[in-house]
Each structure stands twice: as C-alpha cells, then as structure tokens.
Write a structure and sequence with these properties.
The complex is a heterodimer of chains A (about 120) and B (about 110). Chain A has about 120 residues and is an all-beta fold. Chain A has no helices and eleven strands. In chain A, a hairpin with a 2-residue loop joins strand 5 and strand 6. The N and C termini of chain A lie far apart (about 35 Å). In chain B, about 0% of the residues lie in helices and about 50% in strands. Chain B contains no helices and nine strands. Chain B starts with 8 loop residues before the first strand and ends with a strand. Classes of the chains: A mainly beta (about 120), B mainly beta (about 110). At the A-B interface, strand 5 and strand 10 of A face strand 3, strand 4 and strand 8 of B.
Chain lengths: ~120, ~110
C-alpha cells in the first residue's frame, strides 16, 4: 500500500482565495482524520470521519473550514475564504477500528504545507 | 483523555542511550501508551506502544512502571537520524469518540 496520500504537497495562495486539500486514506481503513500543525499550536485535530460520516468537527476553527468524505477513498478539506493565519501544515491520517485509541493504526500522510499571503 | 507531560527538548550524542520520560498521572485502566516520531516535513510515525512493563521492538524500548503514571522511551544507541520530535500519547483501546490528542512533544537533537 502506498500509505496515506495527500495533495498538493505545497500550496501558496492569496488571501481570500479558496483552497482545497485532498487526501486518499489507506485502503480498508474506516477512520480518517484531519490535523493541522503550526509552531504555536502544535498538532490540532480538526475533524474526523468514520465510514465516510463526519463524527466530530469541534476542532474546525471557523465556518470558513469544511471537510467532506464522499467515499471511502477520498476526502477534502476546504478553506473559503483563506486567510494568512490559516498558514500551516495540514495532515491527513487514517486508521482501522480495532486499532483506534491505541494509536497503532494511525498512519499519517506527508502533509500539505499551506501558505496564504 | 489522560494528559501527558514531556520535556520540551533534549540533546544527546551519537552512540549514547537516550531516555525520554513522559508523565501521565491520570492514565485510565484501559489506556495504552503510544509514542510517535516526527521528522521535519513529515507526518508523525508510530514507534512503539505498550500497556505495562517493558516493550521492545527494532526501533526502541518502552518502559512502564507498575503504577503506569509515567513511561520512558529508550533509544539504545542514538544516531543522527534519530533527531526528531517525539510524542507520547495515551488513549483507550476502545474509544468510541475520543481521538488521539498530541501534546507538544520532545524535540530530540542528536549531535555528532
């Protein structure tokens, strides 16, 4: 398996533009997570899905952020409109039900480095 | 979720044993202890997990005392490539709603 695949690896956009980040989880994994990492706040959980259904989005910072998972092999995180303070590395991770909580099943992608100017 | 406390940073030298200790005073009975490693420009990567006593794999050892209120990640012979941020997390083995919460981690610098 190629692991969790995220695209793009880098994104530079102007303030006010819409940004869409993409994630392909590991085949067969039933949980998908979106994290954001900054120097100031570390790794923050934004939202997670179970079997394509959003379970907890309490970490989503504002209504400008939205996430979807139309099928088991694809998820998007959208920011509209983007702001400079959204600049961060966004990670997607996936896991299997029986490994959740123990951490073993969490596989992270390489992340998308977003810069909003 | 049980909170964890780790040193912010540590320095070591190649070939030395490195021990990173994590405190988790409020660990619950069904919580496991897991360590992740993160290199620059990469996502965190699972290293090792344990419940009690000692666990060893090809990468590291994890020591957990009987009261489980702390744990120690041990890298037997540090190499330059071990320079990374190490996260200690605790979480139940069957958590229907709680997710893994990453703390600040320990930034390990291995020097030649």
């Amino acid at each position: 398996d190629a692991g969790v695949i995220q695209s793009p690896r880098h994104e530079v956009t102007e303030m006010g533009q819409e940004v869409t980040l993409r994630c392909k989880p590991i085949s067969g994994h039933d949980y998908l997570f979106w994290y954001r990492q900054t120097m100031m706040r570390g790794l923050e959980l934004l939202i997670y899905f179970n079997n394509n259904v959003p379970i907890d989005d309490s970490g989503m910072p504002e209504d400008r952020f939205s996430a979807k998972m139309p099928n088991a092999s694809f998820s998007t995180l959208k920011i509209q409109p983007s702001e400079p303070r959204d600049s961060a590395v966004y990670f997607c991770a996936s896991s299997l039900t029986e490994d959740r909580g123990r951490g073993y099943g969490y596989t992270f992608g390489s992340g998308t480095r977003l810069t909003v100017v | 979720l049980a909170k964890t406390t780790q040193p912010i940073s540590m320095d070591s030298y190649e070939g030395q044993e490195v021990n990173i200790t994590c405190s988790h005073n409020n660990i619950a009975t069904n919580d496991y202890i897991t360590w992740y490693q993160q290199f620059p420009s990469q996502g965190p990567r699972f290293i090792i997990q344990g419940y009690k006593t000692k666990v060893t794999n090809e990468v590291a050892s994890l020591f957990i005392p009987a009261d489980r209120k702390s744990s120690t990640l041990s890298l037997p012979r540090a190499s330059l490539s071990d320079t990374a941020v190490y996260y200690c997390l605790v979480g139940p083995s069957n958590n229907a709603g709680n997710m893994l919460t990453f703390g600040g981690g320990t930034r390990l610098m291995v020097k030649p």
